[in-house]
Amino acid sequence: MSASNINKTLPPRYGPNFKQEAAYEHVKELLNEILPQTDKSQIETEQNWRFPLEKIREEKKRKPKSTKKKLLTRNEKKKLGLLKLPKGGWDYSKILPMNKIWKEYMYENLELVKRAPHHTESDYNSFCAVLNKSELIGAEISIIRSKVPSYVAESKFKIITKDACVFIIQLRNMKFTVYGKSLLTRPSDRSIKKIKSYVFPDL
Amino acid sequence: MVKLRKCVGKENLQRLNYLYQIGNIYAKSNCKQNNLLSSYYTNLMISISKKTVQRLEPNIKRNICKVCKNICVPGKNCKIRIKKQKIQYKCNICSSSKNYIAQQTYLWFDQTQSVNEILDYSQNKS
Questions:
Q1: Across the interface, which of A80, A97, A188 has its CB nearest the CB of B47?
Q2: What is the ipTM of this complex?
Q3: pLDDT tens digits, one per residue of B44-67
Q4: Is the pLDDT reported for residue A26 higher than 70?
Q5: B118: closest CA of chain A, how far (Å)
Q6: Rounded to the nearest 10 degrees, how much is the dihedral formed by the CA atoms of A43, A45, A47, A52?
Q7: Contact A133/B12, CB-based, under 8 Å?
Q8: Res. B109 pLDDT band, cuts 50 70 90
Q9: Alpha-carbon distance values, B27 to A72, A88, A89 (Å)
Q10: Nearest residue in chain A measured CA to CA from B39
Q11: Considering only alpha carbons, which residue of chain A is nearest residue B31?
């Protein structure tokens, strides 16, 4: 053996079944060659060999953090255009069939039998509660009274204040008048909110 | 005409059903502005179902993208692949994906024992 063997791999006899006794002999052989003659006598006498690298084990592999995408940030939503609906470029011919579906849905939802109940009948209160909880997207709505006179009977795409208006919802041959005050909540909140049976009819 | 027993929260369930139908129309249309509406409707649908404590059907829930809340229409919005007995949905809009186990009776919902009672309202249609 020579000193040039240090950086090479171990011979096959020390391979996988590497024992501590074999390690002693290997180091002894190596030291016999390298050390000067004056120090060779100490090899046998000094029995406390230490192998500091013996105690160090391989570290456990950490799992890489999951790169799964969770929720979108606000800026990403803004880029996709999910926050605010665009003003122009709509295809209105595709929007029209929504009204046809809405009529079917509403007729089934209110459980109408040819006519709506009169306000003196016993069904009237439960009927109003169902009407309040139903969806108004896709409905045909017009304004009959308003604090802003220019809103009345106007056919235009416009954002308005609901507080100061009275609406009419049309369903086949029936009309429902709805005060804007009762529509001031969020659309999702409307389905849990309880309504008063009688509201003072005022703008 | 027979008047059936009312099920609890019928008007809410019908509202959810209507919103899902509209959302499907807009997810399929070719106009880009109209596609944005479908995510708006499904957002409303999820918030209503949370507040009224009525859970969505698992097949409907799986059709909705979890990140951008669009309705997934395979071939248009999303990709569907089968890998190692799992179905992978990949959204084309937000490029997120989700995996489900491809087994017919994996959910409790799919088994026949889970059905307790059926109320049929189709007779009331005019």
A1: A188
A2: 0.81
A3: 899 998 998 988 888 888 888 888
A4: yes
A5: 18
A6: -40
A7: yes
A8: confident
A9: 20, 18, 16
A10: A82
A11: A91
